[in-house]
Amino acid sequence: MLELLDVHKSYRMLAGRKHVLRGVNATFRKGERVGVLGRNGSGKSTLVRILGGVEAPTRGTVRRSMSVSWPIGMAAGFQTALSGADNTRFIARIYDRPVKETVEFVESFAELGEYLRMPVHTYSSGMRSRLGLAISLAVEFDCFLVDEALAVGDTRFGRAFGARLQRAGLILVTHQPSLVRQLCTRAAVLDQGTLTFYEDLDEALATYNSL
């Protein structure tokens, strides 16, 4: 389970503090697939970073009793001065996975060629997404945290990711209702710093479209 308890996030600005998340409470259970919808600027990226442990809340508590991936589709979580192979080795050691086999899987699946031995800062956004997805599939998290930059359609990556979701959970943060309908069974809407959950997908999508 992954829980957010009264989570607030604000940033210091020249004109004062900008409040992005205001008292967010959420529970994500192992194996469920949840879509979080939000317009550009609603705080989706901040929420993703907090869910993935990349960034800490200003106030509140994050509790984890299942393994959650880093935000797949974002550059967050990688040491960009290191190569893709070095990042893979580092992550394999953190999650107690066999290093050699993990690197071999990522090399085969991501199809980055010589770039796997080059610094991640030389990668395109698509190459970073492929690296992130390949490593996450090798680690086998309980829950995948995915932002909308990841293409999950009828591609090799999309099919492999879809197959993996049969055995794991998903938190998808996006502004595209079609992705939520395609991949999720429950949804929430992030608006003005608050997160509201809906058990009915149609209700969630209607609420989001009315914003």
From TrEMBL:
Leader peptide range in chain numbering? none
Domain of life according to the entry: Bacteria
Q: Quick check: keyword Nucleotide-binding in the entry?
A: yes
Q: State the Pfam families in the record.
A: ABC_tran
Recorded hits in SUPFAM superfamilies, A to Z, give: P-loop containing nucleoside triphosphate hydrolases
> PROSITE patterns from the entry?
ABC_TRANSPORTER_1, ABC_TRANSPORTER_2
Q: Which UniProt keywords apply?
A: ATP-binding, Nucleotide-binding, Transport
InterPro entries for the chain: AAA+_ATPase, ABC_transporter-like_ATP-bd, ABC_transporter-like_CS, ABC_transpr_TagH-like, Bact_Polysacc_Export_ATP-bd, P-loop_NTPase
Pinpoint the ABC transporter domain residues.
2-211
Among the GO molecular function terms of this UniProt record, one is: ATP hydrolysis activity
* Cellular component per GO, a single term: membrane
Q: Which family does it belong to?
A: Belongs to the ABC transporter superfamily.
User: What is the name of this protein?
Assistant: Capsular polysaccharide transport system ATP-binding protein
| Organism the protein comes from | Neoroseomonas alkaliterrae
Provide the organism lineage as a comma list. Bacteria, Pseudomonadati, Pseudomonadota, Alphaproteobacteria, Acetobacterales
